[in-house]
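Entry:
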Amino acid sequence: MPPNTAPSFGGGGLLGSGEIRLGRGEIHRTPWTCFAWSDAGLDGLHPHLRGRRGHPGTPRPVTLNTGNGLPRDGEWISEWRPAVSTASRRKESTRSYQYAGQYDWNTGIPANLSTPSTKDDYAKVRNSFHSNGAKKTAHYVTDSWGPAPWTPARWWRTIQLGTERDDYRLARPDLTYRAMVSSSRLSPSAMRMGDTARSYRPGTSVAAHWWAPVQHPSVAPSSVCSFCRSDVGATFDPGLGGDSDPTHSTDFGPRRAWTYYRNGEQITNPATLFVPEKADYTFVSTDTHTDSEVRLGGKAVTEYGFTSAAPKSMEAPDCTSVIPQATACEALPVIQLHYRMDASLLNEVAAGTRSTITVDASRTKGFTGDSRMAGARFSVSYDDGATWNNVDVDRADENSFKARFTNAELSGSNGYVSIKAEVWDEAGNRTVQTVTRAYALK
């Protein structure tokens, strides 16, 4: 809406680019647009509608459109129940229709309008859209599709980060969904679910957290062989930014720079990095967000240390999908780190209170060695890494550790908490990860 104007809304024909070309003096008339208003809901419009010539006078079923299989937020339940209740009092029959994934992307017309559904056919998704300390407008996108030849359908919603809301998914085994949330409507850095889309069971309720701390390189696999070494080449492709959900990763976002070491010596030419004999390698990735709106997790430095020699057999069959010429291949013993913690929707924790951060260590898909971790260290910083404080770490299980500590007071910090985690195994493979401004203090 232009500034300094009265609130208004309108409607008209939607033309594609180049759909109509007007010559000098020619006129194109748009269709009429009619508006109706009532302070009594749809019932307030009924006298006008029922007064039309030829309007049926017999009782008719109430049809409740649930909207292409994706009802609107929590409004659907709040609107659906009163409508059914009102219809029941009037002794009218009720029915509702879902359009599911039977959606024609080209025409926007559902292929089948005959499948009835009720609220019991849906699953509830409790979405928590975390923010970096300020509420702002963003986008929430859902793709859904069913068996061929159904075409994927996409729904965009404008949301506010730093808020929660309920969404409903039509729950059927032949319908799958993938969600994506942008961190900003103006400069999107899309966080999406992992490669495997999901279906839902009717009547279930699930929770989904987006952009929750700690934001760090994702552990969601970027390919079927993210860390593999073969006799003709190697792949080393950790996911970009992730959050507290291990299936999330960014399509766009941080810029990544690499530094490589072999036996402690920096190697500037990646083509000569690997040698046939056994050697110690350290790959250092520096992920930096250039988007000024990203105030938490804006920088992450990860040191992947591992020992490797040239493979002699095909221990990672999926390797050939990314390195087709490979005849011998194995997954590298790289350790990936993931974090879980409690924080507000603005990714804040009260200063001076206790926090527990769980560090989960994992291997890449296809790894056949011992996956157990030998130990871990954890430290926090309240001045963006200028100084560090070691904290207590307890083992939770074979691959997880819990760091427990008391957050600094606001007067003893810059308002943020940076973290550094180090995890290693018995073979000496280790990963050290530093995340600047992992979360905020309040």
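Confidence is low (pLDDT under 50) at residues 1-5, 63-81, 94-114.
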